[in-house]
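Here's my example:
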Amino acid sequence: MIKPKTRRKPKGKKSSMWVLILLIAILAFILYIDDSSWLMQRQYPLLYEDLIVKYAEQYSVDPFLVASVIFVESRFVHDAVSPRDAKGLMQILPSTGEWAAERIHLEDYEEEQLFDPEVNIQMGCWYLGFLASQFPDSRELVLASYNGGIGNVRKWLDNREYSKDGKSLDYIPFRETRNYLVKVKEAYKIYKEVYPYLKLEDV
C-alpha cells in the first residue's frame, strides 16, 4: 500500500509565524516594563513632593532619603501614630517636636501640628539635617539615630562591643533599628530608580 505524501507547510508561513511570535513577545516585554514601573509607583508612592523638595533643599538633605524615611515611618499617612506616640508622616515624638519647633522658630507651636504635613516634613528634614551635622560621614549613623536615638548611637560608638573604631557601627543592638536601616536603604534605592527627577543639584 502506497502511503499518501504529507504536505509540507510552505516555509514562508513558518517564518511569518515566528516573526509574529517575536513581535508579541517584544510587545509583552514593553507592557511588562510599563506595568512594573506603575506597580512600583503604587507600592512606593510619592506624596507631598513639593514639601519634600522645599525642605530637603532648605536643610541640605537628600530628598530621596526624606521620601524613604516617610515611606518606612508612615507609608505617607499624615495622621499616623505609633505605639510610642510618634506622630505624622515622619513619626516625630512630641518631645522632639517641641525641641525642633524652638530650633526652627516655629511660633505658637502645638503638638497637634505634627499631623500637618508641612510642619511634620519641615521638622523631619531639619532633624535629619541636624543628625547629618553630627555624623557628616555616615548616613547609617544618621538613620540609626533617627530611629534609635542619638544618645544611644553615641553610647554604641563608645562601646568596643558595637564599634571597633568609634566612628562606625559594627553591630546595632536594637533589632528594630537594624531592621529600620535595611528597610530605609531598600526604599532609598527604589525611590531613586522610580523617581529620578527628585534629585537636588546641591545634595
In short: Residues 30-35 have pLDDT under 50 and may be disordered. The chain has two domains: 14-43, 47-198.
